[in-house]
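Hi F.,

I've been meaning to write this up properly since the lab meeting, where we talked about keeping a consistent format for the predictions we share between groups. The idea is simple: the sequence comes first, exactly as it goes in, then the structure tokens exactly as they come out, then a line or two of notes. No screenshots and no reformatting. I'm using this chain as the first example so we have something concrete to point to.
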Amino acid sequence: MRSSNPVFSRRGFSRDNGAYAGFGTQQPQAGTTTNPYATNPYATDPSTGMPQAPVRGNAMTIDDVVSRTAMTLGTVILTAVISWIALPVDQDNLRTSYGIAIGAALIAFVFAMIQSFKRKPVPALILAYAAFEGVFLGVISSATSTYISPGTVIQAVMGTMCVFAGVLIAYKMRWINVNRRFYGFVMAAAMGFILLMAVNLLFSIFGGGDGLGFRSGGLGIIFGVIGIILGACFLALDFKQVEDGVTYGAPREESWLAAFGLTMTLVWIYMEMLRLISILKGD
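Output, unedited:
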């Protein structure tokens, strides 16, 4: 199962000539326990969960994913706190702080795109993305807290955590069936959503106001909820990616890709949650 992020498409664990060639491009047939990646020395037998060959110590584990994700998210949070403190959003400094935030977001976008097209994860790129993304989130969160409501940011954080926990529980309980049909539906919905938001942004830039109104009022609430649901769907795809990576013995370095994808998905959910709560609370 090749997973993607709602903002940036990434290669996930798919490789053409690595130690586990074809990962993400093949799937076991329904009703069988055949491992299509059995040539990988780190692969496990799905029927027993036991390694099919002696483990050499560099296969990806859940602990690897957790530690890399903690590092990446920790970088986002740290730089967000620093930018919140160092970049004031009062009337005298708002324009400057916003300019820095937009610049940081563009840099983060470039780093994320570079990583997305690389065949192997580059931890420095991923952490750099996280750092600049944190600067952007810090300024936006500070402005929201200042001009909308001080409790908006906490509510958005709590909401993001609840979505993460809810999807994780649903995935572990197998209430969510992540298959090719699910993947295709989510990707189609995400592309349509992003296209609409891009058109709305263009109209707002050249026409002023809120463009087509997709980010305010009743339509803003509807699209905010849709954005959060899409983020939840991509969390399920990310969990599937991690599960397959561990089961089929992806190299340990691939845990950085898992951290990269989970971080981008959580940032997406947080931004949609923040926007939705702001619409509900604001004018």
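Notes:
Residues 42 and 55 are 6 Å apart (CA to CA).
The chain is about 65% helix and 0% strand.

If this format works for you, I'll send the rest the same way.

G.
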